[in-house]
Amino acid sequence: MSLVIYHCAICGENLEGDSKLDPCGISIFSNIDKDENEMQEAMYFSHYDCFRKILEPGVREYLNFEDQSQQIQEPIGE
Questions:
Q1: What's the pLDDT tens digit per position in 12-35?
Q2: SS3 38
Q3: So where are the chain's domains?
Q4: Engineered SS bond to 23: which of 6, 33, 43, 64, CB 3.0-4.6 Å?
């Protein structure tokens, strides 16, 4: 059980870990084409499904953690 409560930046609901892929962190960088000292960074949290659904369909096909999550294994002893 986590002591931190995450809220989805897209739908506003709590991220309660109902999915093996939640919570997700989304980083955004401003001024990506400028010098590093001019960049700013922020991280937001979301449900994997919420983030995936707002992507353009052409980009969405490249975000496929579902297949990769089958390879995620529980740590030994749990």
A1: 999 886 678 888 999 999 999 999
A2: helix
A3: 6-64
A4: 6
